[in-house]
Structures are given as C-alpha cells and as structure tokens.
Amino acid sequence: MTRLRIRRGLLWLGLLSAFIVFAVGCGDGTGTTTADSPQPASSKAATTKAKSNKKPSASPLAKPSANPSAKSSVESIGPAAKGKQTTIVFVDVGQGDAILVRSGSHEMLVDGGPGGSAGAVEAAARKAGIKDLDLVVISHMHADHIGATDDLVYAYSPERALIAGSCDSSVKSAFNAVGAKVRQTRRGDGFTLGKVKVRVVSPKSISGDANQDSVVLLLEVAGKRILLTGDVTGPNEAAVGSICSRGPPLYLLKVAHHGSRHSTSSGFLSEIDPRFAVICVGQNSYGHPTPDTIGRLKAQGTRIYSTHKNGTITLTISPSGAVKWQFDKSSKPVTGAGGSSGGGTSNATSGGSSKSKGNSTVYVTRTGECYHRSGCRCLSQSKTSMRLKDAKSQGYRPCSVCKPPN
Q1: What is the C-alpha separation between 398 and 406, in angstroms, rounded?
Q2: Which residues contact residue 301 at a Cβ distance below 8 angstroms, ignoring those fewer than 6 apart?
Q3: Beta 361-364 vs 370-372: how paired, if at all?
Q4: How far apart are the first and last CA of the chain?
Q5: Average pLDDT value over all residues in the chain
Q6: Adjacent-strand bridge partners of 89
Q7: Given the DSSP bridges, would you call strands 86-90 and 190-193 parallel, antiparallel or unpaired?
Q8: pLDDT (tens digit per residue) in 103-153
Q9: pLDDT above 80 (res 34)
C-alpha cells in the first residue's frame, strides 16, 4: 500500500514538471516582449536608427545624405568660396541702365535697359554666372530703363518685382505671364540679397514726375556702400543725400540720369562724398554726360567711369571688403564730357560708303529708341521702316543685338 502511494506521488510529480517545462518553452518561442520588459540594446539602436533616417517634412537643413563625408568635402571647396563674393555689373547697353547684382546664389536686376539690349544683358548675366533672377527692381518706367525688361522677364522668370507708381503695360504682362509678385516700394523698405543689405531710400511718395520718383537703392556689403539712383532729381535727390550723409562716405555712386546736368548737384555730392562714380551712358544727342556734371564730380575728387568709354563694368567684392574692378574696354577713367568722351567705340558694326549706308533701310518700333535690321527679334511688337540717315537724325541709335549699319 505504501509502495503504491509512493508510485502515484512520483507519477503526479512527473506530470507537474512536464507541464512547467511546456509553459516556459511556449513563452520563449514567440520572440515577443511586453511593453514593460527591458529592450535589448541592439534592438533599441536599430529602432533609433530607423527614426533618424526619416526625412523631416519641413526643415531644409535636415536632408539625409547617403555619403555625408563626400557632401562636406564638396561644400568646403570652389563654388562655396566663390558664393561668398558679391558681384555688381553695370552692363553696357548704350544710352540706358541695366545693373545686375549677384550675392551667393541670389540675383537681382535693376532696370532692363533700352529696347534691343536684352542680348547684352543676357551675355553679361552668363559671364557673371547668373541663370535666373530672384528680383527685378524698376527705377522708373522710361524706355531707356525698361525697353528690354519684358524680354528679360520672360528669359529669367523672376519671383518678385519692385516698382514705384504705375507699371508699363508690356512689362506688367511679362510679370503676370511668369507669375512674378509685383509690389509697390517706398522709402524705408529694405531686404537682404545674400550678403547685401538693400535699403530703399526714395521715393517717399509719388509726385507724378517719373525721374524724380525713381526707386533709389542703397546697397551695403562688406563695409562698402553703393548707391543706385535711377534718374532721380530735384527734392528727392536732396532727400537721398541727406539720408546717405548719416553714414560713411559712399564707395560708389551710379550717377543719375546718364550724367544729365539736372541731377548730381554739388550739394548732393558733398553729402554723399563718393569715391567712385559710374555713368551708364551711350552715344546720344543730349550731351550726356554734361560738362557740368563731370566738373562737379571731379571737384569732389571722385574717379569717374562710364559704360560708353569703359564698356561693361564689373565689381567683385570679397567678404573682407576687397574690390576687384573689370572693364570690357578701357580701364582709364573719364576725363571729358559728352557721349563720345574718352574715345569709346560704338557697339554697332560699320562697312560700305557713307552714302550707301545713309540710304539703307532700317526699322524702328513704336516705343523703342533703337533702329534694327529687318529680322531682329526686337521687332516682334511693331515695325516701321525708314532710311538710316533719317533714323539717326531723329535720335535713334543702333540695336546692340542685330548690329545694323551705323
């Protein structure tokens, strides 16, 4: 009897041991852990890595890289160093204004030059490494400042534009076509273009005189101050002088109105005290730049250059403030007055006798200031034929794109 009980006890003990082993074995075989169980270090690292590889939806600084070390080496050489420089280009467009500004990867155009000058601006932009535009600023709506602007807007599709007053219909249509946001600007506005701080110092309000209401920009970069004046004159020029006198002397003045005697007064110059001056001017019948203006600049001790004598003028400003000047033609400063001062050469080609050229047929547009060859792309809006000598006698100048006889 006792032996029978012992055997039954052993049998039950064996069955209980088998049940415990089975239960533990099932738990280990699933590979799962509960939420409050400790996580193995390897699993935690894998989860963290998976989260870090997820691309953020908003931050542009958190873009993942398959090869971070290679990316860092590219950023530290060549293009990155060049991008720290600021380039300002006064384009030779003849009798008119077109100025390009590039700082890092940011680009701006101030005025688009007269009709027929889009090719010259595009060539200067390519040379400066400009492929598109962030911003177009139009100083005022005169043909010698906006004649090629619509072509340039179509070519570069700027994101924004600044104007003061009403907008020319052709330019407005171009802005609308590329989706540029156009806004009015007034004194006190400001923005940053790469390393360049830009202040709008005129106009305070609109008087109705296009020249006087010109948008005037004060650029500050690497300790240098540069004033782009459009065709400002009268009370607004005086106000600009007063504003600029509150800081250090100007490094460079873009002379207003192509050197007209109606701008760049002695009082204005004494307040801004520019070290250098650039006159955007071409062959003209107005006598620009006038002896009065040249005399006042020289009396101030300002060194003068012009796009007519020196061609396209390029300034490259390093972060340290060092400035490199480049000239497409002569590097000698202007010493005399008039559109032909300094011996500058015309952009147009010449050939044949004077009599035969004078009787040749050229073409003009309804609002342009240039005469053209028959197939010039600048004649897409309108086209009126006339003899060359008549076009010249009426003040038209040769197109810099199709280069008609002169």
Answers
A1: 7
A2: none
A3: antiparallel
A4: 138
A5: 79
A6: 100, 314
A7: unpaired
A8: 999 999 999 999 999 999 999 999 999 999 999 999 999 999 999 999 999
A9: no
Average pLDDT on 155-159 reads: 97
pLDDT digits (tens, 9 = 90+) for 15-26: 555 444 334 344
User: Which residue shows structure tokens 């600009």?
Assistant: 240
Strand pairing report for 86-90 and 384-387: unpaired
Q: Is pTM beyond 0.70 here?
A: no
Q: Looking up tokens 């000698």, which residue turns up?
A: 332
* Contact in structure between 228 and 99 (CB atoms under 8 Å): yes
Non-local CB neighbours of 215 within 8 Å, separated by 6+ positions? 137, 138, 139, 140, 162, 163, 164, 185, 200, 202, 203, 230
